[in-house]
Amino acid sequence: MKKHNISKTAIVTGAAGFIGFHISRRLLLEGWRVIGVDCLSTYYDVKLKQRREEILIQSNNYRSIHSKIEEPGLLLSVFKSEKPDIVIHLAAQAGVRYSIENPRAYLESNIIGTFELLEAARAYPPKHILLASTSSAYGANTEMPYHEKDKADHQVSFYAATKKSTENIAHSYAHIYNLPITMFRFFTVYGPWGRPDMAYFLFTEAILKDEEIPVFNNGNMERDFTYIDDLVNSLRLLCDIIPKENTTGKDINIDSLSPVAPFRVVNIGNNDPKALIKLISALELKLEKKANLKMLPMQKGDVTATWASNKLLKHLTGFTPSVTLEDGISHFIDWYKQEYQ
User: Fold this and answer.
1) Which residues are catalytic?
2) Which residues of 247-276 are buried (b: 16+ CB within 10 A; e: fewer)?
3) Strand (E) or helix (H) holding 312
4) Whose C-alpha in 21, 109, 218, 304 is 20 to 30 A from the C-alpha of 76?
């Protein structure tokens, strides 16, 4: 692998999280300095986050900062001391269903935390800021696949509403302060070192323990499952695709580039939605064990399907996610058995 100049510095928020861990490890392998900011929240197993971080700190080029991103002035001081080349902002309160129970956590982490990061970037501008959004931003849209230029005005969970809000806030900063910003909308990311609150992780535990698996909307759910390696490859390539303001103000084909700011939104998805039952079948096949299904009605805040168009991703980077659900689940189960059994 080609080594990058060691002087390049990246700040990654949420670096001990699932995606943050993987992209931080990728950058470290390429020779970057990585400043990881993570509060190690108790939303899910802290020991898993600590195990991820233990791998990262084996590199002398990794610096760990344990703090909430919404702490006033924290990120400003980090930007001032590190002067990052790029920033990858992944720290957030995740989970659709939990946002119904505890919306304030989403307000503080997702909106205020992003505000603190953008204020720091305004004071010490990086070359590129990459901010995580979500496929949930498309909300009640029913026409699929989802394209980045589709309207996204009707979010159905507070989690999704906070993430769409950060897109709007980031666009205003890109316009007013000429900050180059890429927002990426993730589609159901899965794989080794993943989040224990995600369906594939919970289902694996339930099958192995002979427990019931709750299947919402009676199984009539589809998700555009995206394997973590495909996502990291996409994200890494996008780091080098710095948006520049569209000075003509004209519509640019499929590109979501703003007409008034160096800002764009990019889907990162597999463009291949699968029914939830297909996920369960892949788990059963790899585990060599049948699942005990409990059919349930639709839950509030959920959508019946997600499906990403990845034409813009391919247009910008030349890359298209390609790992099949069966192969991805096989890799996950191999890791799970090694870590937990």
Assistant:
1) 159
2) eeeeeeeebbbbeebbbbbbbbbbbbbbeb
3) helix 311-317
4) 21
d(CA 145, CA 224): 10
Domains held by the chain: number = 1
Cα–Cα distance, 101 to 253 (Å, whole number): 41
Q: In terms of residue numbers, what domain contains 21?
A: 9-190+226-270+308-322
Q: Which two tokens stand for residue 8?
A: 């390049």
Q: How many residues does the chain have?
A: 341
In a domain, 22, yes or no: yes
pLDDT tens track for 305-327: 999 999 999 999 999 999 999 99
Strand segments (E) across the chain: 9-13, 33-37, 62-65, 86-89, 128-134, 181-186, 189-190, 212-215, 222-223, 226-227, 263-268, 274-275, 292-295
Q: Amino acid identity, residue 48? A: L
Strand, coil or helix: what is 78?
helix
pTM for this entry: 0.95
Q: What is the CATH number of the domain that holds 233?
A: 3.40.50.720
Q: Which position has the token pair 């931080």?
A: 24
Instruction: For the chain, state the CA radius of gyration.
Output: 19
Under DSSP, is residue 292 helix (H, G, I), strand (E, B) or coil? strand
Tens of pLDDT, residue by residue over 15-42, are 999 999 999 999 999 999 999 999 999 9
Beta-carbon neighbour count of residue 293 at 10 Å? 17
Q: Give domain status of residue 255, yes or no.
A: yes
- Integer Cα distance of 330 and 233 in angstroms: 19
Could you tell me if residue 179 is inside a domain?
yes
Query: Which one-letter DSSP state was computed for residue 3?
Result: P
Cα(87)–Cα(34) distance, integer angstroms? 10
Nearest residue to 193 (alpha-carbon basis) of 42, 41, 44: 44
